[in-house]
Amino acid sequence: RLKIFLCCCILLDSVSLSLANMMNGIRNRVIHLVRHAESEFNVLANHQIEGFVPIVTKLDANLTPKGFQQAQRLGEKISNETVNGYPINHPLAPINAQCVITSPLSRAILTATHSLPFERYQYIVRPEVSEQIENTTDIPVTKNELIDRFPDLQNEISPLPECWWYRHPNYRNNTDIFTPQHDADLLHSHGGEEPAAESKESVRRRVKWFFKWLFAEKQRKYSNIVVYSHSCTMYEMERFLRAIPDDIQHPEELTMPQNTEIRSFELMENIMALPVTQYLEEDGHHLWSNFDGYYVPQNGNTAQHYCL
Questions:
Q1: How much is the pTM?
Q2: Do 49 and 258 form a contact (C-beta atoms < 8 A)?
Q3: What does the DSSP 8-state code read for residue 88?
Q4: How many CB atoms lie within 10 A of CB 68?
């Protein structure tokens, strides 16, 4: 079985522990979750974590000058300090990441590229780790605009569908009305309420979908993974990793991460036991079968899922 637990203390002689686990048929994987640096939204909302802020109208918030400084300091910390028990010479330290995964929102990409430069790491852009859509700054710019902002990541952004974010159900497959600004205007017209805003249940479904993708055979080659994400989404990712049921709304174990905070989780995988996919399908806490995917508007009434 796959045992998942939080690395909550400094690992003693962690290299020896990893070797011992491998000899016993246990494969170590670590996922480091990183919240983005300070964004324009954080300042406008006075660092309010959740909820609708009517004065915010911009799409896809940028980092503030302070946020750029935080991202650079984050890079210095990763390069020079022990992070959550992993010294820089440990193969599972974030400086030695085999894969850097980032949300498609600009504040996450900028935090990632200013702390773990894309020239040195393999980057993957995944929509599932984007922020819960509660404000217009959680709605992206178009894919072409995102490529214009980050031309060096064109190959990583191009595979995204044209529409990868949550949309009001009435417009999800509407090919005639298909712009981020339309969705931002709709969000304001609903006062930031559902169904124009994204529900917690929707966030949890896509978080589970992300872990389904991460545990798939193609991604199992990555033992050291850094994910740049957002406060509400990281909260639900930690819920998943701790196997806290969805019906517990505010568990004491969970807290919202601060800007550039790193939370590290060790995934202990028994390679001699059940296949990962079989385990996940059987575990009631980790079901994602009701996730309907991200829809890409097509010609006519059909839609294409953005899946694994």
A1: 0.83
A2: no
A3: T
A4: 16
